[in-house]
TrEMBL record:
Name this polypeptide is given: 3-keto-alpha-glucoside-1,2-lyase/3-keto-2-hydroxy-glucal hydratase domain-containing protein
Highest taxon listed in the record's lineage: Bacteria
Organism: Dictyobacter formicarum
Lineage of producing organism: Bacteria, Bacillati, Chloroflexota, Ktedonobacteria, Ktedonobacterales
Domain spans labelled 3-keto-alpha-glucoside-1,2-lyase/3-keto-2-hydroxy-glucal hydratase: 106-243
InterPro entries registered for this protein in UniProt: AL/BT2_dom (IPR010496)
């Protein structure tokens, strides 16, 4: 029987006339002696053909191709400000104006300028070239901040408690720091505050975001770090530059990969 079934399992193009006649006679004998129907025999035949020789003709399933993301080299420019057409594409609070190639503020409270770009990478740098021209009253500030997002803590970094005079009662000074938003998500051991006198010269504020850490550098000097204990990565924005009680001059904002 195995030899006979093996002959029947040959592809139709390879079966001989003798094989076809052998199958026809075999079916007639089965019907006459046992009543086995042709349908039952064909089921037996198909099952036998699938196992003869110990192999089947099923084509192995190939795993789906999953493309891999190409890493972006560190230092790649993602965005650079351009105010040649004014503030048409920026979300700016009252108090901002174009002054030559720079932006400048009135000494108001709650100044805000939103960058019209959000990075698509978890590790990035925000650089702002700025000058604090005048502090109108004590308690002024200049900050760069990113909004908290679902599953991602925000951050802020900059200078607080700006003073309007050169007199420093009780040794008070402005402070620079980076921290996590919300404040309760921050690793308190990572939190650093430093006294800092910005003067009226130009400075480069650099905010580095890497995973759960934000770092503040001013003029390439490391100033302050903060780490989130709640989320593995920090927010990519929206990113704002905010200020209060200062005349602030801004020449450029750049976002690059870290």
């Amino acid at each position: 029987m195995p030899g006979f079934i093996g002959q029947l399992c040959l592809p139709l193009g390879r079966q001989s006339q003798g094989s076809e006649k052998m199958m026809h006679n075999f079916i007639k004998r089965l019907r006459a002696s046992t009543g086995i129907t042709i349908l039952a025999f064909l089921s037996f035949w198909i099952a036998s053909c699938g196992t003869i020789g110990g192999t089947t003709s099923v084509k192995p399933t190939q795993p789906p191709h999953v493309p891999t993301a190409t890493p972006v080299p560190a230092g790649t420019l993602l965005y650079e400000s351009n105010w040649s057409s004014g503030l048409d594409h920026w979300s700016a609070s009252p108090g901002w104006k174009l002054l030559g190639k720079n932006l400048q503020t009135e000494p108001m409270d709650n100044l805000s300028l939103t960058i019209p770009y959000q990075p698509k990478v978890p590790n990035y740098v925000v650089e702002a070239r700025l000058q604090i021209v005048h502090v109108a009253s004590n308690g002024g500030n200049v900050l760069i901040r990113a909004d908290k997002q679902p599953g991602k803590d925000g951050y802020r970094a900059g200078i607080l408690n700006l003073l309007s005079t050169s007199v420093r009662p009780n040794g008070s000074h402005p402070q620079v720091q980076a921290d996590i938003d919300p404040f309760g998500s921050m690793d308190r051991d990572s939190f650093e505050v430093m006294d800092y006198e910005p003067g009226t010269q130009w400075h480069t504020f650099r905010i580095e975001v890497s995973g759960d850490r934000v770092s503040l550098l001013i003029d390439d000097k490391s100033i302050s770090d903060a780490i989130s204990t709640k989320t593995d990565t920090l927010s990519e924005g929206p990113i704002h530059l905010t200020g209060s009680r200062v005349i602030l001059r801004l020449s450029s904002i750049r976002i690059t990969t870290l």
